[in-house]
Amino acid sequence: MIKLPDDFVRKYQKLLGKDEANKLFTAIKSQPSKKGYRINSLKENKQVSYNTQSHIPVIPNAFYGEISGHDPEWISGTVYSQDPSAMFPSYIINAKPGERVLDLCAAPGGKSTAIAEQLQSRGLLVANEISPSRAKVLRENLERWGVTNALITNDKPENLTRQFPRFFDKILVDAPCSGEGMFRKDQQAIEYWSQDYVMKCQERQKKILTAAVKMLKPEGTLVYSTCTFSPEENEEIISWLSQKFELEILPIELGTNQVAKGQPNWADHNKKLANTLRFWPTAAIGEGQFVAKLKLPAKPEMSMTGSRKENKKRKRRLANIAPNKAEIKLIAAILDQFNLPSALLNWRSDCLIRNNHVFIPAQDTTGLHVRILANGTELGLLKKNRFEPGHQLAMVLAAQKQTRIINLTANSYTSYLHGEAIKVNTDLKGFVLVSYHNFILGFGKVANQVLKNYYPKGLRF
């Protein structure tokens, strides 16, 4: 049985009244957490083996149910496991193809993958995560999802601010928080909780948001979300944003009565705080969540500090270079065998080489001084007199119907994920895509009816 902190119980009895508070406590203690998943619209094959009868309200291609990280649907980037309530912030940001969007606290990648779908490979997604270990997971999930237009960074928000002043059309800040909304699925969140921790989170959220506002274009949209109930981290933060930066609190229409309004009386009584949304576990959508949508004025008063020019004295990164004719020929010998999605059609003119890695950049990073983990689509690696396609390319090629495919059996599927060579009966030779149940998993190379395994070592089971 979950034991809630005494201070937490007293706090929400005071805020909600004893009857409503007891309903919340019962939902946390006695009701099972909700699990959900989304189906990737960027992939050609969307026919999953899971039950798709129980739809999550409002969110497209989203269903209640539990998936396994060992299933081909997950390995291929066809599904993403995500708390149902956590799907709403990226839905609310409503990114349009061609826009520049920043997901500032992006790991593990659920919201970034959803934004990437909205952009449809057009425009720019900057997905940032300050933690190196979590940033690695973010990169893996975006590559698995088949995203071509992401710049993945691992840096502090204030460092990004100097590089991207007034740059983004839309910014999502899913802020680090006290995690009260995760209590019924995360015992550590309960153990870590205190009112002092709530206030420390508020201080950190203000620092992150101050950086975010500096990167937002005039009339740009900021979506702020947390997975906590705490007014200090929700209504009070939105009130602070509205007063300090003159951001307008926008209404959010979802078309469902399962979501509650924010509480103006839990902050400064600004009536527009009722435009914000609260997801309570008692409503049975998912775990606890808060979301607000705000708009920057057309002429923001806030002065900008820092710019890319200020960083010219820093040590320059190694230059990216365009491939020569011989290198183009090596790359074409592989790529021309596959059906390329639209994002890759102009690879000959768009691709660059850096340390022998061939990639199509999502963003020109000349003079950009941030920690970059990935930029756009890595096509593969140039080695002596040959080109070796990369794993991300396989995930992107899954957007189109392909013919150079080896379909695995149940036993060979397990062997492939282990990194083993596999005996195959095929007339195909050279690099091929490897699939199981029509879900593309990665590359292999066939010679003498043996499939050499190119599934990345870091992903193997």
UniProtKB/TrEMBL annotation:
GO terms for molecular function: RNA binding; RNA methyltransferase activity; S-adenosylmethionine-dependent methyltransferase activity. Pfam families: Methyltr_RsmB-F (PF01189), Methyltr_RsmF_N (PF17125), Methyltranf_PUA (PF13636), RsmF_methylt_CI (PF17126). S-adenosyl-L-methionine binds at C105, A106, A107, P108, G109, G110, K111, E129, D174. It comes from the Bacteria. One of its GO terms (biological process) is RNA methylation. Signal peptide: none annotated. Residues 14-297 form the SAM-dependent MTase RsmB/NOP-type domain. Keywords: Cytoplasm, Methyltransferase, RNA-binding, S-adenosyl-L-methionine, Transferase. The active site is at C227 (nucleophile). Belongs to the class I-like SAM-binding methyltransferase superfamily. RsmB/NOP family. This is RsmF rRNA methyltransferase first C-terminal domain-containing protein. It comes from Lactobacillus helsingborgensis.
